[in-house]
Amino acid sequence: MDKKTRIDFICGLPRSGTTWMAEVMSEHSEVVSFGETQYWGKKYVKCKEKKYSIRDQKEIINNMWGRTLMKGKSHDIKSVMRENEEYLTRRRYTPKKYFEKIVEIILDLEGKKRAIEKTPHHIHYIDRIAKEFEKSRFLILVRDPYDFILSYKHQSDRREGAPKKSFEKVYHPLGASLSYRGYCNSVIDAKKKYPQRTLLVRQKEIKNSSKKLVKNVQKFLGVNAEKIRREKTNTSFPSRERPDLEEVEIFWMNKLAKKNIKEMGYRVKKTDTKVEDVVLSMLKIPIWLKNIYINISNRSNRPWSHISKWIRSEF
Fold first, then answer.
1. H helices of 154-222, where?
2. H or E element that contains 303
């Protein structure tokens, strides 16, 4: 990959339009977006030495997530990496160099010059990325707290069977509110540390002035201005009316993230929550925590390690 080629990143709150932004940028003649690799976040593989071992690099290929985010077509990144495994494991690389090799393959595949990686939770690891890529820029997407918790709650609506029931068991407004607070803390910290390298994008800009937004994003990333036609979509509720939040859900968001809501420039909603509703919600917390533990245990051999990382990120 050309040393002058810059890799940029889309991160921020989940359910805030990150996929829309990535797909919009991929419509540019010079840009390809891809994700969610989680390469620098939850799936980051620490080096025991300065460079990965060949075994580490093969493990990264086998555990890779994500796809190219292109309108009308998409390539699975793991499949692409497996097709190029000999090239990717020919020698040992540092984490940065190995990521650049992956990007090089994606650029060649799509015939593009610029790459943008999209993983929302990378906002929690922006220091790690910013240190490795000193010229990279970050599009940070954010969302109104009550829209966030509503979308978070209903993200399983398009699922069926066991996956739907599994998610419903691990939802509690307390957890969603803590998640929002944790993301906001990371966003605020990133803006303070990297003011010239970050652009904050509010989801309402996508809804209200998407053409102006795309123009500003292209300018921020330093790509040639191109007109891009892209429909605004409601990915949370594409085929039905938007439901209402329960008062107790607003209560939890205000209780746990009131300071963050104000710092992010949003308005705190008033709520007339009944005491009995709050008590009932609190009684559900032990069962919710149990379900969280079971869910993590099914996906990891080290559940307590994941839980401790989550607690540190939230508090």
1. 161-169, 173-193, 203-208, 210-221
2. helix 303-314
| CATH homologous superfamily of 7-283 | P-loop containing nucleotide triphosphate hydrolases (3.40.50.300)
CB 7 within 8 A of CB 116: yes
- Contact yes or no for 47/95 (Cβ under 8 A): yes
pTM confidence score: 0.89
Position 292 scores a pLDDT of 84
d(CA 113, CA 104): 9
Residue with tokens 């966003």: 187
For residue 303, pLDDT beyond 80: no
Which residue ranges make up each domain of the chain?
Answer: 7-283
Tens digit of each residue's pLDDT (9 = 90 or more) over 94-112: 999 999 999 999 999 999 9
Q: Which of 211, 190, 215, 185 is nearest to 200 (CA)?
A: 190
Q: Is the model's pLDDT at 162 over the cut of 90?
A: no
Distance, first Cα to last Cα, the chain: 39
